[in-house]
Amino acid sequence: MSYTKEPLVISNPSEKLLKAIEELRRNKLAKLEKLRNMKPEEFNRRVILA
Amino acid sequence: METSYSIIQKESEYRILLTPANLGSLSSNVVKVLADRNIDVSELMIDRISGETTTEQDILHDITGWVADLFANNPNLIIYYSCDDMTPIPSRNTNSGNKDLPVNEYRSRLFTHIFDSYMSSHQVSGVTNTPIRLDNYENGVGYSLFFHLIARDKHNDIVEMLKDNIREVSGK
């Protein structure tokens, strides 16, 4: 059984799509920065493995 | 949905965040359908804060299990994952056949491998991984971007709508 579909491949995406992706990337970077600066007690779950 | 998880093992710390995806680039029709059907499209982010050793299998299983539990408990959740090309992969196996893959393509293949393994080993059905690849090349020079959507089969129409919107924005 296959759980993964064949990829949707877009070749030579439009400027509009690339701009949208750049926006997503900026958004991700901001959220990653937030994630990196979170204090331990701010996480919903925290595990320390041996 | 917004929820976070921190895993520490020896000198390594991994931080995982599931956060509402930025839908601002989608057409208003698509946003309306998502809202009408109460679909939660959330972005999965995984970041390694410290440590340089190869990530152990039990860490990958732990992260996968956490995400799978969230997915199982949220019937209208669709997970969006964009494969990071911003940070390197420490201690990557440089002897493997994948050694020349860009880091985002490597992450995309790993994501699919972990997803398929989890689905198979836990005998889960009715959930599908849809990879999306954008090839932006001119005269053989350029780059590719990799994304994934994880959705229940009952949301196949939503995934198709998202794919159509991407094609439309790209003029394809």
Radius of gyration of chain A: 18 Å
Low-confidence stretches of chain B: none
Give start-end ranges of low-pLDDT stretches of chain A: none
Q: Helix and strand string of chain A, N-terminal first?
A: EHE
* Form type of chain B: globular
What's the number of extended β-strand segments of chain A? 2
Main sheet summary of chain B:
6 strands, mixed
Q: Largest sheet of chain A, if any?
A: none
Distance between the termini of chain B: 32 Å
Q: What portion of residues of chain B belong to β-strands?
A: 25-35%
Identify the biggest protein-protein contact and residues per side.
A-B, 39 and 50 residues
* Overall pLDDT confidence of chain A: 91
Counting DSSP H or I runs of 4 or more residues, the number of helices of chain A is 1
Biggest sheet of chain B, strands in spatial order?
1-2-3-4-6-5
Count of runs of 4 or more consecutive helical residues of chain B: 4
> Structural class of the secondary structure composition of chain A?
alpha+beta
What does this structure look like?
- The complex is a heterodimer of chains A (50) and B (172).
- Chain A has one helix and two strands, in the order βαβ.
- Chain A has 50 residues and is of the alpha+beta class.
- The radius of gyration of chain A is 18 Å and the shape is flat.
- The mean pLDDT of chain A is 91.
- Chain B is α+β, with helices and mostly antiparallel strands and 172 residues long.
- Chain B has one domain.
- Chain B contains four helices and six strands, in the order E-E-H-E-H-E-H-E-E-H.
- A six-stranded mixed β-sheet of chain B has the order 1-2-3-4-6-5, sandwiched between helices.
- In chain B, a hairpin with a 2-residue loop joins strand 1 (3-9) and strand 2 (12-20).
- The longest helix of chain B is centred in the middle third of the chain and has 19 residues, at 103-121.
- The model of chain B has no long low-confidence stretch (mean pLDDT 91).
- The chains are: A alpha+beta (50), B alpha+beta (172).
- The interface between A and B is large, with 39 and 50 residues.
- Strand 2 of chain A pairs parallel with strand 1 (3-9) of chain B, so a sheet runs across the interface.
